[in-house]
Structure of DUF1311 domain-containing protein:
Amino acid sequence: MSRPAVADEFAPTEADRAAIGRCIEDVGEALEAGADAPGDRNDCIGVASGPCLDDERNQSTVGQVMCLARESAIWDEFLNRDYNALREKLTAATFERLQDAQRKWIAYRDANCAMPHAFFEGGTMAQPIGAHCIMEMTARRANELAVYLDWAGL
């Protein structure tokens, strides 16, 4: 069974992954160089979805949600990569604590990002706001896990 064309159009691309990766590398290099205002990894949130959202073809509710979901998928890949790396680096007891925190974080993210649907009673505004919430919270958690991975390497 083939997937709909719209799903392919909004699938994460290597260019999207590379743009976010470059942004993260730039932040890291600025930090290492002791820049006055190096920023942080969270400044990279929106790097892939921004240009997609700016495209006039994506001004519909569906277009906005798909742009945000595309970037969310990339941050989720980063989150899962680092979570699995932490599984290998942490003691069993420490990883168990991380696993518990991760489960609680997922429940919080899902409940928190469902709130726009309550405020807007399921109206069309709720969809992109909720999708943005998922993207931003997933990116921030991915960045937290990246920090944990750095700590595990000390």
Observations:
- Residues 5-152 form one domain.
- Residues 61-89 form the longest helix (29 residues).
- Residues 116 and 126 are 5 Å apart (CA to CA).
